[in-house]
Amino acid sequence: MTTIPEVTTTSATTTTNETTTTNEPPTSNVITRPYVDPAVCGSGARTEFSGQDLTVNPFALGRDTSTAVQVFGQTSHGAAGSFALVVRMPAEDRDMPEDHPVTVNGTEVGVTVFPDGRAAAAWRLPDGTKAYMRARDLDEAALIALVARLIPRDASAPIPGFDVQPTGDTGAPSLIAEHLNTGLIGTITRFECDPGFNRGRVRIAVIAGDPIFVYLGIIDRPPPYAVGINGDGAITITNSISKPVTLQQITNADLNTWAALPKIQEP
Q1: Inter-residue contact 193 to 239 (CB < 8 Å)
Q2: Which residues pair with 50 in a beta bridge?
Q3: In this structure, are residues 130 and 123 in contact, taking their beta carbons and an 8 Å threshold?
């Protein structure tokens, strides 16, 4: 079984929080070999991953091979907007930690709001299966409103996740992507550089492939400070200390420059 390797990820902005991220349009061309001028970010290194027929276990959950993975958000904003990724798991899967319980439609839902703009919800369904939602830049009220709209599908459905009740609010999240946790295709191309003393390490990721693969590359990783749409995928920047690089400063390395970069030394 192949799993997605660790890669940096992203966050958008609908909550007011010092650690929430920004969404900027990247350069007009699709980035395939991300690169930043050494004058901006020092020397760099690179790595690439490409896989087909991948099996993923979001948040280390759903190790069953028929786990439904769905994304609810706004099609117009895509991966650069706020969204929630939902996993429906077998009854025997582990419980996720929670900060406090909230009753939604008569069901107790464990809710957690993180200081970095993410939020999560976990609950058990009437048939015993479990659901876990991880959201990017949805506050608690928006998170609970989305949970309240989800209708469990029959376990025999091709993707046994959720349908979502329509609402009159055109800005409310809708189902924008879904897949089982198997049979995915995706690529991750990473560039890292060191902007100088006490400024952290900049990690840039270009994520492409099936939509679920792209959204997982954003939400199932440490939250980055910037994200942009990049073709049909996304490009993200992560640094836990500073924000020395913008999406506009990322360019496409030519083949010779890319080949000359050292490989990222994985821990």
Answers
A1: no
A2: 187
A3: yes
Q: Is the pLDDT of residue 237 over 60?
A: yes
The sign of the dihedral angle between the CA atoms of 176, 142, 217, 86 is negative
Measured CA to CA, the distance from residue 45 to residue 213 in angstroms comes to: 23
- Global pTM reads 0.85
Residue 200 has pLDDT above 90, yes or no: no
SS3 78: helix
CA separation for the pair 71, 181 (Å, rounded): 13
Contact 223, 238 (CB under 8 A): yes
Q: pLDDT (tens digit, 9 = 90+) per residue, 22-56?
A: 555 544 579 999 999 999 999 999 999 999 999 99
pLDDT class for 2, splitting at 50, 70, 90? Answer: very low
Q: In angstroms, how far is CA 158 from the centroid of its own chain? A: 23
CA geometry: angle 194, 197, 200, nearest 5 deg: 50
For every residue of 54-68, which 3-state class applies, written as one string? ECCCHHHCCCCCCCE
